[in-house]
Amino acid sequence: MTTHFHLATAPNPGAIAVIQLVGPQASAITQQLTGKPPTPQLTLTSFEDIDEGLTVALRPDLIQLMPHGGPRVVQRLTARLTQLGATPTDQLDTRDLYPEARSHLEADALHTLARAASPAAIDPLLAQPDLWQNALNQNTLDPDTIAAHTRAADHLVTPPAVVLVGQANVGKSTLTNLVMGRAAAITADLPGTTRDWIAALAELPTPSGELVVHWHDTPGLRTTDDPIEHRAIELARRVIAAADILIAIRDPQTDWPDFNKLPHTVDLAIWNKSDVAPPPPDAAPP
Questions:
Q1: Contact, 107 vs 92, CB < 8 A?
Q2: Distance of CA 45 to CAs 31, 58, 139, 210, Å?
Q3: What digits encode the pLDDT tens for the residues 146-187?
Q4: I need a labelling partner for 141 at 20 to 30 A (CA). Which of 87, 164, 223, 244 fits?
């Protein structure tokens, strides 16, 4: 049998990550990695020269590794596990991960909860086992309703990518700082201030609670002789192409970006700085 590993926590940066190692060689691989056999007691260990963290053997074939949650630490540690013979997978039995769960439904909900980026996901996920069991008992499963609820829940677990585009100096960075609640982007009355796209998790209020999105602020789209800024704009186009929601912004002095040259359809258009001048009747985007 193959020994697999799986990141049991969200892929976002955090204080601690949890990597589950499952299979007949789980203990042997852990001993190679840490220099000591894993035990049922939580133990402070060194993961070679990668990091220092905790290990625990829930069973001889089920080991938890808990390094710091920085993305580079997790990347290096999972690469080393692969070198030692473990195989990455998303198909682990969630009952192995959560032996305290009453059912596979509850284990799946707990597993999803561990990866959820939005606090708004907690109550719906905890309610899932009973909702599913009641629907199964009463034979009231409706595929369309399930699909709609699944799409909504997916956005609470895996944040959608929201990308902001516009020409230089229309207020993209100011809006980004307002959404994020902190000074994530430099603001200045100078075109080209944002040299690269900026991304962070942002919490947005919704009628059902907080929703977390991956918010991206991009450099002002303009023609420039600056090779660094030109390269940054080209890299930003990849982010724009991968957006789940694309927001275009303009102000009274500056027109909309050229929608025909964007690699993604604009979903929402914003007229900024309306305190300077309200939008005229012909201000609608093309």
A1: no
A2: 10, 16, 50, 37
A3: 776 777 777 778 888 999 888 888 888 888 888 876 554 444
A4: 244
* Cα-based torsion angle of the residue sequence 162, 167, 170, 172 in order, rounded to the nearest 10 degrees: 20
Q: Per-residue pLDDT tens for 34-73? A: 999 999 999 999 999 999 999 999 889 999 999 999 989 9
Sign of dihedral through CA atoms 58, 63, 66, 70?
A: negative
Residue 210: how many other CB atoms lie within 10 Å: 13
- How many other β-carbons are positioned within 10 Å of the β-carbon of residue 36? 12
The pTM of the full predicted model, rounded to 2 decimals, is: 0.60
Nearest residue to 120 (alpha-carbon basis) of 36, 33, 213: 213
CA nearest 81: which of 11, 5, 152, 25? Answer: 5
What the block records as the tokens of 90 is 């998303």
DSSP state for residue 163 in the 8-state scheme: E
Residue 43 has a pLDDT of 93
Question: 77 φ, ψ to 5°?
Answer: -70, -45
Phi then psi for residue 230, to 5 deg, are -60, -45
Residue 167 token pair: 């020409």
SS3 261: helix
The three-state secondary structure class of 107 is: helix
CA distance 278 to 209: 31
153 by DSSP, 3-state: which? helix
Task: Look at residue 53 in the predicted model and tell me its pLDDT.
Answer: 95
Pairing of strands 209-217, 161-166: parallel
